[in-house]
Amino acid sequence: MNPEIKKVLNLLGIATKSRNLVSGEFSTEKAVKEHKAALVIVAEDASDNTKKMFTNMCTYYKVPIFFFGDKNDLGHAMGKEYRASLAVLDKGLADAIEKELKLIM
């Protein structure tokens, strides 16, 4: 696993521990619609329907969205079962994660 990917997953772990991350379709959607989400990440192996829904939603609410990792990686980073979507609530953490994601893309 390359260092940038590892760093993103570590930052997601930190966001989870500091309660600045919500995951799962319902919680992620709620965070975006309540203007609490600073960044949304959707697993690359999420369904096309899920990807389309979050792409449209994030475009509308002007929230940065990235397709990164698979459901297992995202879930594992949070110490949970697999997760298809998550929202980072803290702007500082979101910026740090976004910076790393841009290095990978």
Question: How are the secondary structure elements laid out?
Answer:
Layout (H helix, E strand, L loop, with lengths): L2 H15 L3 E3 L1 H9 L5 E4 L5 H14 L3 E3 L3 H7 L7 E4 L2 H14 L1
Parallel strand pairs: 2-3
Antiparallel strand pairs: 1-4, 2-4
How would you sum up this structure, described in words?
This protein has helices at residues 3-17, 25-33, 48-61, 71-77, 91-104; strands at 21-23, 39-42, 65-67, 85-88. It has 105 residues and is an alpha+beta fold. The chain has one domain (3-104): Ribosomal protein L30/S12 (60s Ribosomal Protein L30, Chain: A), CATH 3.30.1330. A 4-stranded mixed sheet has the order 1-4-2-3, sandwiched between helices. Helix 2 (25-33) packs parallel to helix 3 (48-61). The longest helix is centred in the first third of the chain and has 15 residues, at 3-17. It is globular.
Which outline best applies? globular
Portion of residues in beta strands equals 5-15%
* Helix coverage percent: 55-70%
The count of strands amounts to 4
Strand order of the largest sheet: 1-4-2-3
The assigned structural class equals alpha+beta
SSE pattern, N- to C-terminal: HEHEHEHEH
Query: Mind telling me which CATH architecture this is?
Result: 2-Layer Sandwich
Contiguous low-pLDDT stretches (5 residues minimum) are: none
The CATH topology is 60s Ribosomal Protein L30, Chain: A
Number of structural units classed as domains? 1
